[in-house]
Write a structure and sequence with these properties.
The protein is of the alpha/beta class. The chain is built from 13 helices and ten strands. The protein has two domains: 160 residues, Rossmann fold (3-Layer(aba) Sandwich); 111 residues, 3-Layer(aba) Sandwich (Rossmann fold). The strands form two sheets. Strands 4-3-1-2-9-10 form a six-stranded parallel sheet, with helices on both faces. Bound molecules: D-glutamic acid. The site of D-glutamic acid has 17 residues, from helix 3.
């Protein structure tokens, strides 16, 4: 029998940082990934629009019969997770709670920094999640709107990137946090630069990677984990933007030579309706 895949979505290539960890931790699983590169970035957009875009990507993945959905994007998690969970039958996992839990576990001095897109920081979802579990912890948030365009244009190792990261984190550095949540799935591609600016004493939390630990537990809980079989695992990638740019970033980040990337237009996404059988 064909394996049922896990679906991942993001505004672009950021969710690949989650995908990389998922492939490592869950080698028997098949994955379908969609990046909405044509409409990236989501960060500066109004919440209602991000929610609508997230639904477009979700319907596309549901149409491919996924068994679980990972919202591999903090901005989309902040805007759409409660609604998706309320409406859909399959388990839906966001990246904010796992990132918050890991930060609480890591901090020694109760000083946590959170960096993310404007949408994620404006939503205050990290602050709320951390404070709910540990009221006394201080949370210092900083939106870094210039990071995502650097990653999407494959310039995350450049001299410009170094300058942008240094300038963007200047204020946050003064807060002397001991833990910093990379609250945007694009940011782990800038991790060496972020670590260099913040200093070795600051522990960086990759919200996406933390999410995969929880996905692994949930697969067992819902009895959805695949056994090791002779069936090949599928890893399929879709983008609403440039296939070549996506392929370049994905193959180097995931260290995969053969990578299957298909273009799907935004119009196509909008044409897919939510199947009644996907509702709770
Ligand atoms: N990767 C996304 C996140 O985790 C969104 C970046 C964007 O499109 O602004 O927030």
């Amino acid at each position: 029998m064909k394996k049922q895949a896990i679906g991942l979505l993001d505004s672009g290539v950021g969710g690949l940082t989650v995908m990389k960890e998922a492939m490592k931790q869950l080698p028997n699983e098949s994955f379908y990934y969609i990046g909405d590169t044509a409409r990236c970035p989501y960060g500066p957009r109004p919440e209602e629009q991000v929610k609508a875009f997230t639904w477009d990507l979700t319907r596309f993945l549901l149409d491919k019969n996924i068994k679980m959905l990972i919202i591999a994007c903090n901005t989309a998690t902040a805007a759409a997770l409660p609604e998706l969970k309320r409406v859909l039958k399959i388990p839906v996992i966001g990246v904010i709670l796992p990132g918050s839990r890991a930060a609480i576990k890591t901090t020694h001095q109760g000083r946590i920094g959170v960096i993310g897109t404007e949408g994620t920081i404006r939503s205050e979802e990290y602050r709320k999640a951390i404070k709910k579990k540990q009221q006394q912890t201080e949370v210092f948030s900083q939106a870094c709107p210039k990071f995502v365009p650097l990653v999407e244009s494959n310039q995350f190792n450049s001299a410009i990137a170094k300058k942008v990261v240094t300038e963007s984190l200047r204020d946050l550095k003064r807060q002397k946090v001991d833990t910093l949540v990379m609250g945007c799935t694009h940011y782990p591609l800038l991790k060496p630069l972020i670590q260099n600016v913040m200093g070795e004493q600051v522990t960086l939390i990759d919200s996406g990677a933390e999410t995969v630990n929880e996905v692994s537990v949930l697969l067992d809980y819902y009895d959805l984990a695949e056994e090791k079989t002779d069936q090949p695992n599928e890893r399929k990638f879709y983008t609403t933007g440039s296939v070549n740019m996506f392929k370049d970033i994905a193959s180097s980040w995931l260290k995969m030579n053969e990578i299957e990337v298909e273009h799907v237009s935004v119009e196509e996404l909008k044409g897919i309706e939510l199947n009644e059988s996907d509702r709770k």
